[in-house]
Amino acid sequence: MKYKLILLLAVIFTASCDQAPDVPSEENWYDVMPRASWAEYEQIDTGQDWFEVYKLTDNTYAIYEPNQWQEAISYLLLGTERAMLVDTLQGVGDLKAVTDKLTQLPIIVMNTHSHYDHVSSNYQYDTVYGLNMPYTANNAKGHTHDEIGGSMTPETIWKNLPDTFSFEFYESKAYEIDKFVADGEIIDLGGREIEVIYIPGHSPDSVILVDKQNRMMMTGDTFYPAPIYLYSDTASFQDFFMSAQIMFSNRNGIDFLLPGHNETMQSVDYLNELRAASLAIINPTTEFTQATGRRSYDFGAFSIIVKDPLDFGLRRGE
Fold it and tell me: What CATH number does domain 43-307 carry, 3.40.50.2300, 3.30.565.10, 3.60.15.10, 2.60.40.10?
């Protein structure tokens, strides 16, 4: 989930959990690191080199994995009574120890979707919310090394693996969903309300989390300023097309988008660009580049990679 240098991906490992790509083809993919935009925020020392933690506001933290090529980001949202952890990353390091240093509030885990790079530390937490759908339930069973081990290899890491980590035994552990949430549900953290809005496309169970009080929208993998992947067997461009309109319609009162990879605190103006991009893709005159089974549409700050031929099938509710 990288910038243009990662557009040339070698999916040399095929994950049966449909959540590839896993391996970058660029030998020096890490040359873009560290990303300058993170220097705008106060970095918090948590004693674990695998994670970088940044204070975005007085009640919002970003927990970033810069040492693996997917550069996943989790967010800790603090209310007065409880906290919400948005996504739990890839299961490397001790995420629970990090969040325990940041807050003593009880933590609710809420995932933007159930791909392994967003849920693999869910098992560490007592309370996990999720959608009531077969796709989510299946991913909650975890993923074996055979399914996802190709995402954690020496080629995908550039420094600072924890001493306890083993490439040979990397997996995503099973977890329990303690409460099902519905589209439009409000989760009250105490003085801070988070709305769950269903926006499938990248996956059948993708959501955005809208925090109007703090003028933020957590977008997961439906938007980040890099290639957006819509070509897996469980992705749907048609769902994404509708979801881009839904996200745009929820932009009022929002200043910043908090994506699930690479960089944080992106301008809400990207929602207009995302909607325009989805419209451009259905225009047969829009240019694209082609690879086997895929098309890539370049929109400057981000691109969208879809199936070739373009698939208009729906995956909502699967």
Answer: 3.60.15.10
